[in-house]
Specification:
This protein has one domain. Helices cover 85% and strands 0% of the residues. It has 5 helices and no strands. Helix 1 (2-29) packs antiparallel against helix 2 and helix 4 (80-92) packs antiparallel against helix 5 (96-125). It is globular, with a radius of gyration of 16 Å.
């Protein structure tokens, strides 16, 4: 039951942050490109890399922190279903180039962001591992 509460609490925070990020990017960039979904997925990947690196190197809190911050908060913050819907909507509007670009930027950018997060932890911790 404690694990479920950790995931739910983190999910509430992550979902709220996702909503606010979506509103901010919509105001900044308009509705023409799914900038909110892209932003949360790339930032979420970076944060997941940082979290994974920190937990692996410090063992800090172990499972509880992983559940609260990883499964809960970052699970609520990032969204694969919205990514899929945005991609299909672009393709159905006849904008296949934008849809393909979005997929490539999201997937490659997410991997690069996650790796960057892990490398930041490695650099800060001073270990070569």
């Amino acid at each position: 039951m404690y694990s479920l509460l950790l995931v739910m609490a983190g999910g509430a925070i992550g979902s709220g942050a996702r909503f606010l990020t979506g509103q901010a990017t919509l105001a900044a960039f308009g509705p023409g490109w799914p900038s909110g979904t892209l932003t949360v997925n790339l930032v979420g990947s970076l944060l997941m890399g940082l979290l994974a690196g920190i937990l692996a190197r410090t063992g800090m809190g172990g499972e509880a922190w992983g559940l609260l911050l990883g499964t809960g908060m970052l699970g609520g913050f990032t969204t694969f279903s919205a990514f899929a819907l945005d991609t299909v909507n672009m393709a159905q509007r006849g904008d296949g180039v934008a849809a393909l670009s979005y997929v490539l930027v999201s997937v490659i950018g997410g991997l690069v962001a996650l790796f960057a997060g892990m490398m930041v932890v490695r650099a800060v911790s001073g270990t070569g591992a």
